[in-house]
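Record Non-specific lipid-transfer protein, 114 aa.
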Amino acid sequence: MMKPMCMVLIVTMLMMAVMPQGEAAIGCGTVVSYLNSCIPYLTGKGPLGSCCGGVKGLNSAAKTTPDRQSVCGCLKSIAGSYSVNLGKAAGLPGQCGVSIPYKISPSTDCSKVK
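=>
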């Protein structure tokens, strides 16, 4: 459990270092804090549990286009560099009753998210 958490923190720190400041209110640290309870489910080590609460909270917090693009970039980075089940990650919003305007995938073009 510690190794996946370390990877998430490393990815978060890298994303925060390269993100332009002041454009989006939601950074990767915030994304990780909302979705931390999803890690066991997405890595096949646990049930869905309380993950949907975080998914719904993050969706509610991402109100502007820059916020949604920032969240998309963080999710894309995590999905591409972290050992998550991409099918579970892509299906998570629908499973939690949330609609997002993009697919959670390493190939998503976040600049097109509105």
